[in-house]
Amino acid sequence: MVPEFVASLLLDRPNFVKPPKIGHEVAKSHRPSGASVGHLYDALAPDYDRRHARWLRYAGGEAQAAVEGAVRALIGPNTEMLDVGCGTGRFIRRLIDDGLVPHRVTLLDVSGRMLSYSNDLPVTHVKAPMDRIPISDGSLDLVTCLWALETIEDRPAAIREILRVLKPGGWACFAFCADKSFCSPMGRILRRSVERLGAGSFLQSDEIITNLSAKRDVAVRQIPCGGPATALLCRRGDTELRQG
Description:
Blueprint (H helix, E strand, L loop, with lengths): L3 H8 L9 H9 L4 H41 L5 E5 L5 H8 L6 E6 L2 H5 L7 E4 L12 E7 L8 H10 L1 E12 L7 H13 L7 H9 L4 E6 L5 E8 L8
């Protein structure tokens, strides 16, 4: 068992850190609206990277590594890329720091304060919800959506938008909190923390795969990973990736 004082720190209980009030309001319904999600993540922005690093260390690291590996293999000098629900932009910052610079990168997030943390990067910033992406049809080679599907109520609409902006032959990569019965005690503690803050839901992987596969020209593959998380890779216009 995790010692109680460690659990208290991990959960950020009120006697250590009091979460934003809006987080409690969102958590009651577990159905965050676009406006409330934006306000919540505006409030969480100064401490977001610390919280997210903790999530990756104890729960979502395998899924993150799986998707990052795929993205690094897919990026080329002519790649037109969109990171949906980009947060503070740390993912793109790592790629750029490692010399993996796509031709054009757009960062999209519903939180203006989260976006502001990447103002120094050579990218285009778009403040918008992921179910209404202001980008033309079939214009992107690569779309990433890491730890963002959990935060939106209308996930099918967000998935349709991501697929809409992909070129034929384009790739989409996803990582999200998944509702898995088998995970470590630390993973369960962090799940309770995420749910208590109202920062997102834990999704059914099969439901997301079904939504992605609803478009006939999209192939989907689940990348094996542990922890309460799922990593998915899909390609528009390629049926060979599809799993039965």
